[in-house]
Design goal:
Strand content: 15-25%
CATH topology: Sufe protein. Chain: A
Largest sheet: 3 strands, antiparallel
Structural class: alpha+beta
Number of strands: 3
Distance between the termini: 38 Å
CATH architecture: Alpha-Beta Complex
Bound molecules: zinc ion
Shape: globular
Number of helices: 4
Length: about 150
């Protein structure tokens, strides 16, 4: 699939994460593991998360294959999660979903969402929203294992 027409700067950020994914590789003995699949595009993401005793995410690793949007979204997500609590991870997930549904924008979200803003343009391409959300859906599955 072709990249949607996104703002050039944002397209550069997405391509950079796609070509040089951050936190690539699963963590042995991770606290939480989950796997996601987007049948509409064939994207796959495997996620492993290490959480310390204060519920702070100390390490995140992922593996995956699929389109640039799905893999860049996973890479950007892993960067944002490290050093944050699981509660904050859930909040980021909610805000990113709001961004994709158009109910909030990167300027009204109320805190710095970093490079997630690069994916905001994806909301104009409904088919690709599932690509952008795959890593986040996988994150929710991983967090839900903790009960
Ligand atoms: Zn995709």
């Amino acid at each position: 699939m072709q990249m949607p027409e996104l703002d050039d700067l944002y397209a550069d950020i997405i391509l950079d994460h796609y070509k040089n994914p951050r936190n690539l590789g699963l963590i042995p003995d991770a606290t939480l593991n989950a796997e996601g699949f987007n049948p509409f595009c064939g994207d796959q993401v495997k996620l492993s998360i290490s959480v310390d005793s204060d519920d702070i995410i100390s390490k995140v690793g992922f593996e995956g294959e699929g389109c640039s949007i799905s893999q860049a979204s996973a890479s950007i997500m892993t960067n944002l999660l490290i050093g944050n609590t699981l509660d904050h991870a859930s909040l980021l997930n909610q805000q990113f979903r709001n961004l994709m549904s158009g109910s909030t924008t990167s300027t009204t979200v109320g805190f710095d969402i970093g490079e997630l803003a690069a994916l905001e343009g994806v909301k104009e391409f409904p088919v690709r929203i599932k690509c952008a959300l795959l890593a986040w859906a996988t994150l929710v599955d991983a967090i839900n294992q903790r009960s």
